[in-house]
UniProtKB/TrEMBL annotation:
Pfam families: DUF3180. Keywords: Membrane, Transmembrane, Transmembrane helix. Residues 155-184 are annotated as: Disordered. It comes from Microbacterium capsulatum. This is DUF3180 domain-containing protein.
């Protein structure tokens, strides 16, 4: 599984920013009040960030214990269900994507409020800033939780990992064999 790309997060944040800006612009041109996020949204985003980290922590602890030679005894090692780790990694990825969209959305709302000639109400700006900060906390916490669920040495640049080292051909067992040079 690949880690979440920063480019994807940036694109989602930009798209969320455009939607937030256009939403407030559309509401204003229709003669309605601008959109202000509820104060419960930042609280829920921070709680989600805490929950994602709490779910990923046992996996990190298990991976770190199995990597230490002195902790490899059966009594100290805790096995983690790989499906559980995958589900938590997917939760972390979804949370980082959601956080990026909400960061952009809140930034778009704030940009529209600050671009108007009249001074926006303090309550609106406070709610928008709190939403952006909480969504940024969620995005960072989710990326950290996603890294907790990754096995060390599994990257494409690791020669000992499954993607690095010699090319394997027709190998369906646990014993890797390098492709023999036939000289053709």
């Amino acid at each position: 599984m690949k880690r979440t790309s920063p480019i994807v997060l940036l694109v989602l944040a930009l798209a969320g920013g455009a939607v937030g800006f256009l939403l407030d612009h559309g509401l204003t041109t229709a003669g309605r009040a601008t959109f202000t996020p509820a104060i419960a949204l930042p609280i829920l985003l921070v709680l989600l960030a805490i929950a994602v980290l709490a779910f990923a922590w046992p996996i990190r602890r298990s991976v770190r214990q199995s990597a230490k030679p002195e902790m490899r005894t059966a009594a100290h090692r805790r096995r983690v269900d790989p499906f559980r780790a995958f589900r938590i990694a997917m939760l972390a990825r979804a949370s980082s994507l959601l956080g990026a969209v909400i960061v952009g959305f809140g930034a778009g709302l704030g940009a529209y409020l600050l671009s108007r000639p009249i001074q926006p109400p303090i309550g609106s700006i406070t709610a928008v800033v709190a939403t952006v900060v909480a969504a940024l906390v969620l995005t960072i916490a989710a990326l950290v939780a996603e890294s907790f669920c990754m096995l060390p040495g599994n990257g494409p640049h690791d020669p000992d990992g499954p993607h690095g080292g010699p090319r394997l051909e027709g190998d369906d067992d646990e014993h890797p064999r390098a492709v023999a040079d036939t000289g053709h």
